[in-house]
């Protein structure tokens, strides 16, 4: 099970979650993906195939946008697919 970044992240793209992640599964990030990709993204995304479900990103998120996949609020369940789709590009 992976974690999912949801709607509160839109427009914020705070980097605390990226810095807390031990497996580099949160993107885009300027240092690894380029500033242009970071600027163009609507939000940050967690790669469901790389996430180890450690939860390190959850407490550092300043907008409480990150949830374990099975705990994503019903009104934000679409973000499960949005996170997965980001990595299909």
TrEMBL record:
Stored InterPro entries: 4Fe4S_Fe-S-bd, 4Fe4S_Fe_S_CS, 7Fe_ferredoxin, RnfB_subfamily
Thylakoid listed as a keyword: no
Cofactor(s) demanded: [4Fe-4S] cluster; [3Fe-4S] cluster
Keywords: 4Fe-4S, Electron transport, Iron, Iron-sulfur, Metal-binding, Transport
Zinc listed as a keyword: no
Annotated 4Fe-4S ferredoxin-type domain residues: 1-31, 42-71
GO molecular function annotation: 4 iron, 4 sulfur cluster binding; electron transfer activity; metal ion binding
SUPFAM superfamilies in the cross-refs: 4Fe-4S ferredoxins
Pfam families in the record: Fer4_7
Task performed by this protein: Ferredoxins are iron-sulfur proteins that transfer electrons in a wide variety of metabolic reactions.
Record's protein name: Ferredoxin
